[in-house]
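Q: I'm a student working through a structural biology exercise. My instructor gave each of us a protein and asked us to get a predicted structure, then write a short paragraph describing it. Mine is Gnk2-homologous domain-containing protein. I'm not confident about reading structure output yet, so if you can add a plain explanation after the C-alpha cells, that would really help. Here is the sequence I was given:
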Amino acid sequence: MSSSKLFTTFLFPLTLALLLQTSFGADPLFHFCSSSGNFTSYSPYETNLKTLINSLIYKTPSTGFGVGSVGQYQNQTAYGLTLCRGDVSASDCKTCVSEAAKEILNRCPYNKGGIIWYDNCMFKYLDNNFFGKIDNTNKFSMLNVQNVSDPAMFNYMTKELLSLLAYKASVSSKMYATGELKIGGGSEKIYGLTQCTRDLSNNDCKKCLDDAINQLPSCCDGKQGGRVVSGSCNVQYEIYPFVKE
Ligand SMILES: *[C@@H]1O[C@H](CO)[C@@H](O)[C@H](O)[C@H]1NC(C)=O
Ligand SMILES: *[C@@H]1O[C@H](CO)[C@@H](O)[C@H](O)[C@H]1NC(C)=O
Ligand SMILES: *[C@@H]1O[C@H](CO)[C@@H](O)[C@H](O)[C@H]1NC(C)=O
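A: Happy to help. First, here is the predicted structure for Gnk2-homologous domain-containing protein. I'll explain a few features afterward.
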C-alpha cells in the first residue's frame, strides 16, 4: 500500500495550497500583452475599452461567459471575451473577472490587447474581431513536477479520459466537461476537465481541445498533473479532485 500512502502525502499539500490561495486571493496563472499597438490616454480606444471591460464584468457572472465589442468606428473598436471555469459560482466568477480586468490593465497599461488567466477565469481583449476563431497565439502549459509510476499506462489513460471530455464539452451548451477514470486496480483516479470559449463552433471547440491534448506529451509526459491553456480552450488533469461538484 505504499503507493496510496504516496498519494496521500502529496494530496495534502496540494489541497492546502489551493485553500490558502482561495482565501488570500488568487494570483494570475499567466498573461500576455498583445503587440497590436498602443493607445494613448483619453483616446477613443481607451474610452471604448473601459466601457467594454465594465460591461463584461457586469454580464459575465450570470452565465460564466461574456463577449462584446464597443466602438463606433472599426479602428477604435475594442473586442472582449471573458470565461469563468464551469464549476465556479456567480460570485466567485464576478470576483475573478473584476480582479482579472484590474490586473491585465496594470500589466499591459497601454497595449490595445491583453489576455490573463486565473484558475477561475480568463479575460481577453483586442483591437480586432477575434470571435469565433481558435486562438493559437496565446497559449501556455503547467505541470505538477511529480512523476507517475507507470507513465505509459498513465499517459494513455489520461488521453482516453480527456478525449472523451473533449467530445462532451464540444456538444454541451456550456462547452465544459469534467470526469474521472480509475487507473490500475487500486483506488487511484485521474480527474479531467475540458472547456472552450462559447464563441467557438462545436467543431472548432473539439479541434482546439484535441490540439491541446496532443500537446500534453511535450509539457507533461508522465507527470501527475498537467494543463494546456489557450485563449480558446483548456484541458487539465490531476490525480486529485480539483473541481467543485
Ligand atoms: C507600447 O507601450 C509599451 C510600454 O507600455 C512600450 O514598451 C512599447 O514600446 C510601446 N509600443 C509601441 C508600438 O509604441
Ligand atoms: C478612424 O476612423 C475614423 C472614421 O473612418 C477617422 O475619422 C479617423 O481618423 C480614424 N482614426 C485613426 C486613428 O485612424
Ligand atoms: C521525474 O523523472 C525524471 C526523468 O526520469 C527525473 O529527471 C526527475 O527528477 C523526476 N522528478 C521528480 C520530481 O521525481
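A: Here are two points you could use in your paragraph. DSSP finds five helices and ten strands in the chain. The first helix runs from residue 2 to 23. It's a good idea to check both against the output above yourself.
Q: Great, thank you!
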